[in-house]
Specification:
There is one protein chain. By secondary structure, the protein is an alpha+beta fold. The chain has one domain: Oxidoreductase, molybdopterin-binding domain (Sulfite Oxidase, Chain A, domain 2, Alpha-Beta Complex). Helices cover 20% and strands 22% of the residues. The strands form 2 sheets. Strands 1, 4, 5, 8, 9, 10, 12 and 13 form an 8-stranded mixed β-sheet that branches. The chain has a 5-stranded mixed β-sheet with strand order 3-2-11-6-7. The longest helix is centred in the N-terminal third of the chain and has 19 residues. The termini are far apart. Bound molecules: ligand MTE. Ligand MTE binds next to loops.
Length: 301
């Protein structure tokens, strides 16, 4: 009886361990994205559209994820999101605009796609280099014509606990929401990504469409977006709702402003040994520092 109980407990904990620490899965080849433009290397490096750092392998990018709608275990997201259905899909762009509009996925995929090789720095202290494919958010916003009162842009992830099983739990206030100032949203580095490594975005990385803002901590880059609203006031954001003293609205990568529980001075590049120094604005200061001229970056963390 005792042995059976012990064996049962051992089997159960093995199962639990496997669920929390599944072996990495090989990402099945996704649909290829063709007609992707890329600036010349010199041009791309100068504008920040590409960095010279070594790319993080696809296997790592797709097996080490934060996507709480599926799992709170980084290695568990790939499994939990396998088979996530992304069609039909639509993104409503609304609020303080002259021409509100719902874009279906095929319309979104018709925007001229560009490759952008960006660093992604998570507030938890790890980083990657990802070859995204997408289009500048400003191209989408131009279509709806923000009016003169619009100063902020709010983003919302799909809310559907049947397709995103962890939304049945209360670990976060669902849906996941994020926001940017309008000038940040219009910046050429801010993109809506629909792919990576030449193929459509895998579910675990935010399929079918996600925001990517490379100079901000990774949690600002909201995944699986269904709504974008132009607003006059700063919108609430998920991690700020959870812990406002830890996660601010701006959340620009800044090695000089420590998180209340840990330093932000260094980071672990996934696949590298040791830690490297974190760069102000994640290395994009030349492109974005002017957005924050005169602002106190400690108060506006
Ligand atoms: N978006 C949604 N909807 N849900 C999430 O849990 N996690 C964020 C961000 N976007 C998250 C999200 C965090 S904390 C990070 S670091 C990045 O996604 C991770 O992106 P990646 O898994 O593609 O590397």
């Amino acid at each position: 009886m005792q042995a059976a109980l012990l064996a049962g407990t051992a089997a159960a904990s093995t199962l639990l361990y496997r669920r929390l620490n599944p072996p990495p899965i090989e990402q099945p080849a996704g649909q290829k994205l063709t007609e992707v433009t890329a600036a010349s290397k010199t041009e791309a490096l100068k504008s920040g559209f590409a960095v010279d750092d070594k790319l993080t392998p696809l296997q790592s990018i797709t097996n080490y994820n934060n996507f709480y709608e599926f799992s709170t275990s980084k290695s568990g997201v790939a499994y939990a999101s396998e088979g996530f259905v992304t069609r039909p899909w639509a993104v409503s762009v609304e609020g303080l605009v002259n021409k509100p509009r719902v874009f279906d996925l095929d319309e979104l995929l018709k925007f001229e796609l560009e490759e952008r090789i960006y660093r992604l720095r998570c507030v938890e202290g790890w980083s990657m280099v990802i070859p995204w494919i997408g289009f500048p958010l400003n191209k989408l916003l131009e279509k709806v014509e923000p009016n003169s009162q619009a100063r902020y842009v709010a983003f919302q992830t799909l809310l559907d606990p049947k397709r995103m099983p962890n939304q049945s739990t209360g670990i976060l206030d669902w849906p996941y929401v994020e926001g940017l100032r309008l000038d940040e949203a219009m910046h050429p580095l801010t993109i809506m990504a629909t792919g990576m490594y030449g193929e459509v975005l895998p579910p675990q990385d935010g399929a079918p469409i996600r925001l990517v803002v490379p100079w901000k901590y990774g949690f600002k880059s909201i995944k699986s977006v269904v709504k974008i609203s132009l607003l006059a006031e700063e919108p609430p954001t998920t991690w700020n709702i959870q812990a406002s003293d830890e996660y601010g609205f701006y959340s620009n990568v800044n090695p000089n402003v420590p998180h209340p529980r840990w330093s932000q001075a260094t980071e672990q590049r996934i696949g590298e040994y040791g830690r490297r120094k974190t760069l102000l604005f994640n290395g994009y200061a030349d492109q974005v520092a002017k957005l924050y001229e005169g602002m106190d970056l400690v108060r506006n963390y």
